[in-house]
């Protein structure tokens, strides 16, 4: 398999490896399941996640693990081939739902589907894995109010579903970390466990070792909650004191990924264990491409159970940008994170003999830069620089396309090249996702690359160029900028809710790394992806949870969204990869601001019943039974809640000439006596009225409901939607919600295609 480093150049997916795969298929409990003609080998075994009703018991709340296991075994054949007496069950689930994962043939699954107590089954599918400076960039410094008030996240447990963890890394040192809270029930099977790393388990079949052979889980864990490490750097670059966003929080690693692949059955088992163990925040830096029906997605179903238990679930938005409709992990109960840059770069200037200078970046920087100009070599026919030992490259700086292989670059340098310049593709814009090379390589943006390409082809023998190395530069503007690879909305499954929710640092993030993993010596590595962005927000959620332990997951999400930065470090609009104004489907509510999120003033709250009403609107009773899995609730007794009417902290509405109204309810979590006045920032093409336009609170916890009425004449300048914002402003707080008005937004559930009901069968 290609290394992580190679995958970055070819896919810009350093962290959240998102490959295309077949959508999840599922069964429904129908008596007329039949074998499809022409199906594939019906005797082959596949892993299925099987949902069943809870075991019969006079007191379901007192059912023990053995009762569940015996109940699950009753659905299965007793043996498989020569494995007489061996359980067919791969994983058992009791918290996310009643069910199990087992290896079954299609014929066995057909028979099982007719058993009393069977609910549904999903074919196991594979998902993929999608600092010293970023806490400072987010306004977190030693002694600052938020870190001090929260004890740096003291008492909060962050669970990560990832590739494991390198426990011996100094980021996971337990010094000055308080013991875990009494509610913690998990176990730690790592080589070193302490008050920082309190949990480590593997859910990979035939692998009980939670250590990290890939590096991804170590990197994300230290980003979320790594302890302070002095003198951290990557080959001297990005030097400083490293820490996670919540350095006082505890870490629990649930290893569910191996070689970049994360099977749904293992992910669900990890979530199931995390709920039992007592985590407060779950961080998932993994995902699939695009939207799945929520009632056909076992991970969405499992995370719903987690939030119903009060656990904040933070997920990557995906690395399929800048294409629209590419956002994943888009269920409304998830906090979906996009990736942005920070104001730091690792500069290598490419100075041309005509006096111009091209800005580049690189991780391979030499202490004593060369002073000699070298001829540039660029060939459109050999854009990927496949010179195969050709010494025409000797003493030249060779210009290549960004997906040139490491092997080709090594070959060029072995043939005597003075250096390599990699040109980003046009779709990458100004985003430079850095990769480690063993020689002098400068990566340049698509825009600067176009200038360099024109220079290199303007004469038969360009005079030349020279590299100037500047190591680490801070205060780079503009920042933050949406990374090109960060997936964009609108969501296909839920167009009436803005996704991704928020931006966080995800470009060229320095964090912990196991020694000699993926040819990187460690102990730190620089990676890019929404996988790096999500744990930043997980850390912020942990800080808020420490300060406000009674807040619901939706309240914590609301606090993060309504206090997000809507502008960059220069006071201008947040930009996209082309340095154009980023739209809401790229940036969500804006860029996370931890200090403001800890004191939002008002929150938009949501609970299980609210989400249940939404599931009834979207998928009906069958979806309610599958996703919410609560026999006390039925669609007949619940109001059906459209996506646009969810009490979400962002507002998405249809754009049409007649007025469309949505209701929202806010809860006062600020000063008891508070008055908020509405402030609207909308273009002239949009008519927005808010009733009432003033909210008066007399006590904490008090709720107020308001109505937002929107109409408009349509989009302009080729845009697909119109944007504005609504803010509730008091003497101390600004509570901001983006407004997105979309022509032809469905007012009924989107007609997502329902997939087949299992390999080789249909109904």
What does this structure look like?
This protein is of the alpha/beta class. The chain has 15 helices and 38 strands. The protein has a seven-stranded parallel sheet, with helices on both faces. It has a seven-stranded mixed sheet with strand order 21-22-23-24-20-19-25, with helices on both faces. A five-stranded antiparallel sheet has the order 1-6-3-5-4. Helix 9 links the parallel strand 22 and strand 23. Helix 6 packs parallel to helix 11 and helix 7 (264-277) runs parallel beside helix 8. The radius of gyration is 27 Å and the shape is globular. It holds the Pfam family Inhibitor_I9.
CATH class designation of the largest domain: Alpha Beta
Q: Looking at CATH, which topology of the largest domain would you report?
A: Rossmann fold
Percentage of helical residues? 10-25%
CATH superfamily of the largest domain: Peptidase S8/S53 domain
Q: Spans of 5+ residues with little confidence (pLDDT < 50)?
A: 1-40, 754-763
Describe the largest sheet. Answer: 7 strands, parallel
Tally of strands: 38
Gross morphology is globular
N-C termini distance: 38 Å
Please tell me how large the radius of gyration is: 27 Å
Q: What is the total number of structural domains?
A: 5
- Structural class, please? alpha/beta
Strand adjacency order, main sheet:
9-12-8-15-17-18-26
* Second CATH tier, the architecture of the largest domain: 3-Layer(aba) Sandwich
Number of helical runs? 15
Mean pLDDT: 87
Strand content: 25-35%
């Amino acid at each position: 398999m290609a290394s992580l480093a190679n995958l970055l150049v070819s896919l810009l997916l350093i962290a959240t490896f998102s490959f295309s795969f077949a959508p999840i298929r599922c069964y429904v409990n129908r008596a007329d399941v039949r074998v499809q003609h022409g199906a594939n080998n019906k005797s082959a075994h596949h892993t299925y996640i099987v949902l069943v009703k809870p075991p019969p018991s006079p007191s379901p709340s007192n059912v023990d693990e053995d009762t569940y296991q015996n109940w699950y075994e009753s659905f299965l054949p007793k043996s498989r081939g020569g494995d007489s007496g061996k359980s067919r069950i791969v994983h058992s689930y009791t918290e996310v739902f009643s069910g199990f994962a087992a290896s079954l043939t299609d014929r066995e699954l057909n028979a099982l589907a007719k058993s009393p107590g069977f609910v549904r089954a999903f074919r196991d599918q594979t998902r993929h894995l999608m600092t010293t400076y970023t806490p400072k960039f987010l306004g977190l410094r030693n002694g600052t109010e938020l870190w001090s008030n929260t004890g740096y996240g003291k008492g909060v447990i962050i669970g990560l579903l990832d590739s494991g963890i390198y426990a011996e890394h100094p980021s996971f040192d337990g010094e000055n970390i308080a013991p875990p809270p009494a509610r913690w029930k998990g176990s730690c099977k790592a080589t070193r466990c302490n008050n920082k790393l309190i949990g480590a388990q593997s859910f990979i079949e035939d692998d009980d070792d939670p250590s990290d052979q890939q590096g991804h889980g170590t990197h994300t864990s230290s980003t979320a909650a790594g302890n302070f490490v002095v003198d951290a750097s990557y080959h001297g670059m990005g030097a400083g004191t490293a820490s996670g966003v919540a350095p006082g929080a505890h870490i629990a690693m649930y290893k569910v990924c191996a070689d970049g692949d994360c099977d749904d059955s293992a992910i669900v088992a990890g979530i199931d264990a995390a709920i039992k163990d007592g985590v407060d925040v779950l961080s998932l830096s993994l995902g699939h491409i695009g939207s799945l029906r929520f009632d056909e997605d076992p991970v969405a179903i499992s995370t719903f159970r987690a939030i119903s238990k009060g656990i904040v679930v933070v997920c990557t938005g995906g690395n399929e940008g800048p294409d629209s409709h590419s956002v994943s992990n888009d269920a409304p109960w998830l906090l979906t994170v996009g990736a942005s840059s920070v104001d730091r770069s690792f500069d290598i200037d490419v100075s041309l003999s005509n006096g111009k200078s091209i800005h580049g970046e690189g991780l391979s920087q030499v202490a004593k830069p060369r002073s000699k100009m070298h001829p540039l070599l660029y060939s459109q026919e050999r854009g990927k620089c496949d010179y195969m030992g050709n010494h025409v490259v000797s003493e030249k700086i060779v210009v290549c396309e960004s997906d040139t292989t490491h092997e080709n670059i090594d070959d060029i340098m072995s043939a005597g090249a003075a250096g390599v310049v990699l040109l980003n593709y046009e779709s990458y814009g100004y985003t430079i996702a850095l990769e480690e090379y063993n020689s002098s390589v400068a990566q340049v943006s698509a825009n600067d690359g176009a200038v360099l390409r024109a220079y290199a082809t303007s004469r038969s023998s360009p005079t030349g160029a020279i590299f100037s190395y500047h190591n680490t530069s801070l205060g780079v503007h503009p920042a933050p900028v949406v990374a090109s690879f960060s997936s964009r909305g609108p969501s296909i499954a839920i167009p009436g809710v803005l996704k991704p929710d928020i931006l966080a640092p995800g470009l060229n993030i320095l964090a912990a790394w196991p020694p000699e993993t993926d040819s990187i010596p460690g102990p730190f590595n620089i990676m890019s992806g929404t996988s790096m962005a999500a744990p930043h927000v997980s850390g912020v959620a942990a800080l808020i949870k420490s300060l406000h332990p009674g807040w619901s997951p939706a309240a914590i999400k609301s606090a993060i969204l309504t206090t997000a930065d809507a502008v960059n470090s220069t006071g201008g609009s947040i930009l996209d990869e082309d340095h154009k104004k980023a739209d809401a489907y790229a940036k969500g509510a804006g860029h996370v601001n931890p200090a403001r999120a800890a004191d939002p003033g008002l929150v938009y709250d949501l609970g299980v019943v609210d989400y249940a009403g939404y599931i009834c609107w979207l998928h009906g009773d069958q979806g309610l039974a599958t996703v919410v899995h609560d026999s006390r609730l039925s669609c007949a007794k619940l109001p059906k809640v459209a996506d646009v009417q969810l009490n979400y902290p962002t507002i998405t509405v249809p754009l049409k000439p007649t007025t469309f109204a949505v209701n929202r309810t806010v809860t006062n979590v600020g000063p008891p006596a508070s008055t908020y006045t509405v402030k609207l920032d909308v273009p002239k093409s949009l008519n927005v009225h808010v009733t009432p336009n003033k909210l008066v609170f007399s006590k904490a916890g008090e709720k107020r409901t308001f109505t937002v009425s929107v109409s408009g004449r349509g989009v302009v300048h080729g845009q697909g939607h119109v944007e504005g914002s609504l803010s509730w402003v008091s003497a101390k707080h600004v509570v901001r919600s983006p407004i997105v008005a979309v022509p032809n937004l469905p007012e009924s559930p989107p007609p997502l295609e329902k997939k087949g009901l299992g390999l080789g069968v249909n109904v």
